[in-house]
Amino acid sequence: MMSAEGAGTTAAIVSMFWILLAVFLAPIVARMLRGYVPDVVLLLAFGVLIGGHGVGLADTAGGVDLVSELGLGLLFLLAGYEIDPRTLGGRQGGFAWGTWLFCLALATGAGLLLVPDFGFTAAVALGIALSSTALGTLLPILKQLGIQESSLGRAVLIHGAVGELGPVLAMAVLLSTHSPWASLVLLVVFGLAVLVIWLVPQRLVARDPRLFRFIHSSADGTGQLMMRATMLMLMALMAVAAVFDLDVVLGAFAAGAVLRQIGDGLDKALAHKLDAVGYGFLIPVFFVVSGMGIDIGAVVTSPLTWLGAVAAIWVFRGVPVWASERVFDTGSGLMPGQRRQLALFAATGLPIIVAVTGVAVSNDLMPRQLASSLVAAGATTVLLFPLLAQLAGMRNARLTDSLAA
In this structure, which of 73, 115, 149, 232 has its CB flanked by the most CB atoms within 10 Å? Predict the structure, then answer.
């Protein structure tokens, strides 16, 4: 007779089979649909299908949830790695920060007014969810469209970087179980820990060049030392964030920022390896498991909440970004049509929504039904807003060609 532990292991393996089958099928189905439905939306949909709110083929017991947490960590490590600190300053960066803070305040205030049962912390969680931007999701789209180096692409990157970093910091300070002041102190201590983790390896390599040669020579093959060091740093900063009672997303994001400063000099192929491990396994598992937590019945029975959340994301994130570009000289140099495209891209949000609703539900700040509707709304923005932005770009191009003729 199989023991309870053995039965749990078997159930976890079976769950991982169904999850990885979903991971395998998602890009194939996306290709069949000619890319109109993004891969991440299909991953969430497959998660809904195989999860407890669907046919019940998989659950998160037996360590599946830990694999999903690692996927969340690697997703935000890659987001931190992609952000160039120079984009967060200057004229455009300053306006992007001001716009995001306005979005957060506006959405939080609306939460307090429209949902009387919400306390301040719950309203902040809602505000963070409605004011984020999915930079990691947008990067492949910008590359596919070939606009990453254009003025529009740079504006999307700046607003996306702020719309991802700002919510991560807000989650750490405002959604902690500590008071905001205590959270700020812990955040400073965490920053010092990040500084130590960043500086110590650099000093060791500077003092002993043989260490650099050893790391470089062991970066490939069976050693993969740089990759192992990266995963160790990710887990170290996630662990430090957890010990300080900050969200682990902050630790993962910080790991990516540190890696950007030291990674290129140690292993130029590191980003490709991280993409392979992240997007080939851990990150899609995170999205499938996130989909398994969506109560599709609650979404279907309350479609107005879902559609209202989609509209709220546009109102509280897209419209302020458009208005900022329309009213102020932000230095972006965007044409009117491009401003609408920027607003649509900026209102595309999902990973932060998944993360913040998970924290809110676990801390009893938000009912699971509302969290499911918000995640479904985030998936809808990923499906709809980039497509509308592409169509707007095609329309702008046709108008430009007609004027030139």
Answer: 73
